Amino acid sequence: MDTIVFDGDDCAGFFAEHGIPTPSALFDSLLDTYYFAKNRAGQFVWGNRLLQEQHALADVRDILGKTDHDFLRRDLADRIRADDLSVMDRGLAVRNKLEVIGGENGALTWLFTTKAPIRDRHGKVVGIEGFSRDAQRSHDIMAPFHQFRACLEYVQQHLTENIAIDHLARLSCMSLSTFERKFKQHFSMTPKQYILHLKVHEACRLLPQANNIARVALETGFGGQSYFTKQFRTVVGITPKQYQRSLAAGRAGMAA
Asked: Which residues does the UniProt record annotate as the domain HTH araC/xylS-type (predicted)?
């Protein structure tokens, strides 16, 4: 296990050396999950921005060359190191392992960790990479959506009916204006647009086997076929009939 001296500028050096694709920049967009990659010596060779923030580093590159012992209590770092070595020695991934990490302030962090060996172009294990999902961060991200659970279930169960938005607001224990504002904030569409998209989604499920488009319009709560066609085109970009034909052409192509 060779210890590497990092100059702090070449984040991709480890991966280039072993002919491995550099981790995607999308990992920096994760809000509840830490991504890490380490060499066989246990040094970090990559980490995402959430990991940088967790360790209060000025730059994500500041983690390069460090080990868990630079950031965690010795007993915790020893445990993680032993776990990493086991994964690398066995060459097998560990999935959704619960880890409880205690911080200096006494707070506990609950992590669900998945890690796997990193192999070079020849199949040799040269390190380890993984994700650790922070249970509290995940809960905080999802918390705003929980307040809409009752109204979302109601919409699903009454999709063919004329759903009143003020009733959905009452189910969510909000005024109409607050409900509409928060709904759009979290779902990036108005409640009416959400209902429309759900109805069109159900229509897309029914259309492939349907012989009568007017019946699909009724079964999805649109009423008349002309109104259904107009709304369907607004969402999908083509008419229900064109949608059926495109699916039929695709099936014919696969059969050929």
From this structure: 149-246
